Amino acid sequence: MGPIGIFDSGYGGLTILSDIRKRLPNYDYLYLGDNARAPYGTRSFDVVYDYTLQAVNELFDRGCEMVILACNTASAKALRTIQQNDLPKTGPEKRVLGVIRPSTEIIGQFSATKTIGVLATPGTVASKSYEIEISKFSPQCKVYQHACPSWVTLIESNEHQTEAGKGIIRQDVEMLMDSNDTIDTIILGCTHYPVLKDYIESIVPTSVQIVAQGKIVSDSLADYLNRHPWMDEKCTKGGSVRFLTTESSEEFNQNASNYIDATVNSLHITL
Question: Fewer CB within 10 Å: N-end or C-end of the chain?
């Protein structure tokens, strides 16, 4: 038995953790941010897989029976390989879940025009995970993606609030909207991006919905635990949350407050 593990390459996964804790407040959580090696979005498939597997194994070693990859790039580039190749050998009774599938399962319900835009990192866009998964669940939907290579860096350096940063964000959003004028739903396909939701909404027409993943993922996790009581029994329920980072603890504690409404006292580790 142990806490539910939440992993992200940086700080964005804290937005997922925040929504999960609101939905499932009684569970224990262990968050790991690989901040020293972030961002993952421009790294190769092999590197993302290696880094993600190291993080998952670290969380397993610390008692987690289930790990949520609260990172779209890791979910796109590493999740399937870990599920199919690694878990059967090292932990067939453990589970690793991602954030892309829960979003793609229901996103078709959001769009009246059946035209969906995706804003994501270059790695997630290159994987075509959103296109592939949405085509399974909503084959009638057309999907337009746009890679935003600067956004994670802008957010983590707080430059997204500067005029220059806003200009970059606006340009990316407008490029996505220009790809098809019937887009009425945009998925924020990176867990950092909810920080920008209000600003993005000010750029697009009021008829366009901006969809963050947090509530979708938290509802999906609650449903998963309800349908798999054997896993639910393995998750401890003390209402606690702990934080691990590969960055300095002081820097993580300070920056984490931009993403989660909680006092953060992290422990530095090396993967």
Answer: N
pLDDT, one tens digit per residue, over 87-112 is: 999 899 999 999 999 999 999 999 99
Domain extents in the chain:
4-99+215-268, 101-212
Would residue 71 show up in a list of annotated catalytic residues for this protein? yes
**65 DSSP 8-state letter:** S
Catalytic residue among 141, 148, 190, 235: 190
Confidence of residue 246 (pLDDT cuts 50, 70, 90): very high
In the residue annotation, 64 being an active-site residue is answered as: no
Give the count of alpha carbons within 13 A of 177, CB side only: 17
Q: Name the fold adopted by 4-99+215-268.
A: Rossmann fold (3.40.50)
pLDDT tens for 48-69 read: 999 999 999 999 999 999 999 9
- How far is Cα 256 from Cα 159, in angstroms, rounded to an integer? 16
The model carries a pTM of: 0.93
pLDDT for 200-239, tens place per residue? 999 999 999 999 999 999 999 999 999 999 999 999 999 9
- Residue 8 and residue 247: Cα distance in Å, rounded? 13
H helices within 144-213, ranges in order?
151-156, 163-179, 197-203
* CATH class assigned to 101-212: alpha beta
Starting from the edge strand earliest in sequence, which strands make up the sheet with 209-211, in order? 142-147, 115-120, 185-189, 209-211
49 Cα distance to chain centroid: 15
Q: What are phi and psi of 150, to 5 degrees?
A: -95, -15
Residue 261 confidence class, pLDDT cut points 50, 70, 90: confident
Active-site position among 71, 141, 148, 235: 71
